[in-house]
Specification:
The complex is a heterodimer of chains A (about 220) and B (about 400).
Chain A (H helix, E strand, L loop, with lengths): L31 H7 L4 E4 L12 E6 H14 L5 E10 L9 E11 L5 E11 L31 E3 L8 H12 L2 E3 L37
Parallel strand pairs in A: 2-5, 6-7
Antiparallel strand pairs in A: 1-2, 3-4, 4-5
Chain B lengths: L20 H5 L4 E5 L4 H6 L8 E7 L2 E8 L7 H12 L1 H5 L6 H16 L5 H30 L2 H22 L8 E2 L2 E2 L7 H24 L2 H7 L7 H6 L5 H5 L6 H4 L20 H29 L10 H5 L10 E8 L4 E8 L7 E5 L1 H12 L8 H8 L3 H4 L2
Antiparallel strand pairs in B: 1-2, 2-3, 4-5, 6-7, 7-8
Helix pairs in contact in B: 5-6, 6-7, 6-13, 6-16, 7-8, 8-13
Classes of the chains: A alpha/beta (about 220), B mainly alpha (about 400).
């Protein structure tokens, strides 16, 4: 396939073999009933696979952050072979910037199987936004270890937090940093939680609805030339 | 002593299997900050040079740790579109790529069109595919020019840069617009192929195929290219899948994943094309995959063009969305719901997750950009590799900061 002799070769043998390799991974058989039984506060919805909007999110599981996160941990262990891949991790503030009405603040995980037909969207509700809630909260440096909160409790009304999945899926490292950066959601246990896209001195969580689109701000004094 | 190092390349042995000179002489570890605006980085990485930085720790010339710095190109796209509205967001979406902005627009429109449940006219489908493949050819040639610059093969670099320009002009001829889009509409496209396009395409195709053949001679059979790229920064199939690597780099690692084949959108299921697959996932395999994909894309453009010619002139915009097409600033009301559209972008699997609450302004538009994942994976790929290998690998991965930083 890629083996071209290192001797001078005037032609290019495009002998790429388009055939699929014979050892295709098996499809993961997700036991949804088991999930519903173990995590009763999670809602499991199976979409019609033919629906246009569905591909990539045929199965949607959502609920309180602690339980959703626990379920993800269980999935990572149970579905270890063949592995479930984390293909995206983001967040959403379902409030309204215009009316100021609050909404859910959710972390959204997207997982796929290698075989390709299992597409899972897991939504972990980490808090509420809106007047009175912790809007525009600036992500401050991670807490010291040993805080008294139970391992997987999420914070409603306070600063939103959920356990990191970077230990389960290393690709989550940058993904969680981006969510921390833009939404101010903290990921407990993340090895290196700091801003990724915005500068370190930035204050606020811009993708929260309460954060204005245009904001005049002064540079910190020490940055002035 | 032979003078040429026969030490194994990345991944084939721990750094310093012979005692490093630095350690022997008692030097501390070397730390280099490369970029963001370093001219060498800018030249090698045309699509991300100037907005990507590297913090490197070295032992002699072996990289022991790499931190890739992104974010200088962050423009707040995902925040901006919440104010701009679904239709008003299109110009921002178009700027999420190098030449691949039209592919981002395609994914974005597909997500919205699925929420609107509006079927696309046939001509719009084939026109979008033609433009997507022309964008892919342009981006791929940019990638080739970058890696050739990084390894010092100037003839090959110039050739690839010239071919990039030719295919960019082809895309502009097809769409009637420059690189920053404005051609796609929700529900279709703004214009059909101009009358002089057939002649244009015939001429450009001949030119590009000739340039590609010459590039192969200059760059692939070239012993310098082989020595600089074989066995370098290999990322196997399992690692690639675990780190979210998609596109040509994933295929170079032996995994035949291609969204156009696995989850066809538009009319890709009707196109005849092959998905080149490598073996080791090293830089050399990536190079070969990219070259072959250019060839495949040229064939796909030909098929699209043939079909469009046979269809003749006709509707290119969905009737139900004619008003939005006429005035792109018009509000586009999208039913409440959410949709995910994934396409094979020029860099890899590109997704848009669009959430609507029934108003003309989106609740959320999330762009899952391949380059974001590739930039993170690069940190891991370069462990144990030589400093010289960093820019060729980064160039070959085709980090596009427009999509990575958004």
């Amino acid at each position: 396939m890629s083996g071209i002799d290192s001797d001078i070769d005037s032609g290019f043998d495009s002998g790429f073999d388009p055939d699929m390799p014979s050892d295709r991974p098996a499809e993961i058989d997700l036991d949804l009933e088991s999930i519903e039984a173990r995590y009763p506060n999670l809602e499991v919805v199976v979409l019609d696979a033919q629906a246009e909007a569905a591909p990539g999110a045929e199965i949607r599981i959502g609920g309180p952050a602690a339980e959703a996160r626990a379920m993800l941990g269980w999935l990572a262990e149970e579905a270890a072979a063949p592995p479930l891949r984390l293909v995206d991790l983001t967040a959403i503030d379902r409030g309204s910037a215009e009316t100021g009405a609050g909404g859910a603040l959710e972390v959204v995980y997207r997982l796929r199987s290698d075989a390709g037909s299992l597409a899972l969207q897991v939504v972990a509700r980490v808090g509420e936004t809106g007047a009175g809630a912790a809007d525009g909260a600036s992500p401050s440096p991670p807490d010291e270890p040993g805080e008294d909160a139970p391992a997987s409790r999420s914070s409603i009304g306070g600063e939103p937090v959920v356990d990191s999945v970077a230990g389960l899926w290393p690709v989550a490292n940058w993904l969680e940093r981006e969510v921390f950066d833009l939404f101010g959601i903290r990921f407990r246990g993340h090895p290196d939680l700091r801003r990724l896209l915005l500068e370190d001195t930035f204050e606020g969580a811009p993708l929260r609805k309460a954060h204005p689109l245009a904001l005049e701000r002064a540079l910190p004094d020490e940055e002035r030339p | 002593m032979s003078g040429i190092s026969t030490r194994s390349r990345a991944g084939a042995g721990p750094p310093g299997e012979t005692a490093s000179l630095s350690k022997t002489l008692g030097f501390p570890e070397t730390r280099i900050e490369l970029g963001m605006t370093h001219p060498g980085v800018r030249r090698a990485m045309t699509t991300a040079g100037g907005t990507t930085g590297f913090l490197i720790r070295l032992d002699d010339d072996r990289i022991t740790d790499l931190e890739v710095e992104i974010g200088l190109g962050h423009r707040g796209f995902e925040k901006q579109v919440e104010s701009a509205g679904f239709a008003g967001a299109l110009p921002y979406v178009a700027r999420l790529g190098y030449a691949g902005g039209v592919v981002a627009e395609t994914a974005y429109c597909l997500a919205i069109e699925s929420l609107l449940e509006v079927p696309l006219p046939d001509r719009a489908i084939w026109l979008r595919m033609l433009a997507n493949e022309a964008a892919r050819v342009t981006d791929h040639f940019a990638r080739l020019a970058g890696v050739m610059s990084a390894i010092g093969l100037r003839d090959a670099e110039t050739l690839a840069a010239r071919a990039e320009l030719s295919s960019a002009r082809l895309l502009a001829a097809a769409t009637g617009r420059g690189p920053f889009g404005g051609w796609l509409r929700i529900g279709g496209v703004a214009s059909a192929l101009p009358d002089d396009f057939p002649a244009r395409w015939t001429e450009t195709r001949a030119l590009l195929e000739k340039d590609l053949a010459r590039f192969v001679t200059l760059a692939i059979s070239n012993p310098t290219a082989q020595r600089r790229l074989r066995g370098v920064a290999g990322f196997g199939r399992e690692e690639s899948l675990a780190w979210g690597v998609t596109g040509p780099s994933l295929r170079a690692a032996g995994e035949p994943g291609d969204v156009r084949r696995d989850r066809p959108y538009l009319a890709y299921a009707a196109l005849d094309f092959e998905v080149p697959v490598g073996e080791t996932g090293d830089d050399y395999d990536r190079l070969l995959v990219v070259v072959e994909e250019i060839r495949q894309s040229l064939g796909m453009i030909e098929q699209c063009h043939k079909l469009l010619t046979s269809l003749g002139p006709g509707v290119i915009q969905a009737e139900a969305l004619a008003a939005e097409a006429a005035d792109p600033a018009a509000a586009c009301e999208v039913p409440a719901g959410e949709a995910l559209a994934t396409v094979e972008g020029t860099t890899g699997a590109l997704s848009f997750w669009v959430v609507s609450d029934g108003t003309p302004r989106p609740v959320r538009v999330r762009c899952r950009a391949p380059s974001f994942f590739h930039a993170q994976a690069l940190e891991r790929m370069m462990r144990g590799a030589r400093l010289d290998d960093l820019l060729p690998t980064a160039a070959l991965l085709h980090l596009v900061s427009a999509e990575c930083d958004r």
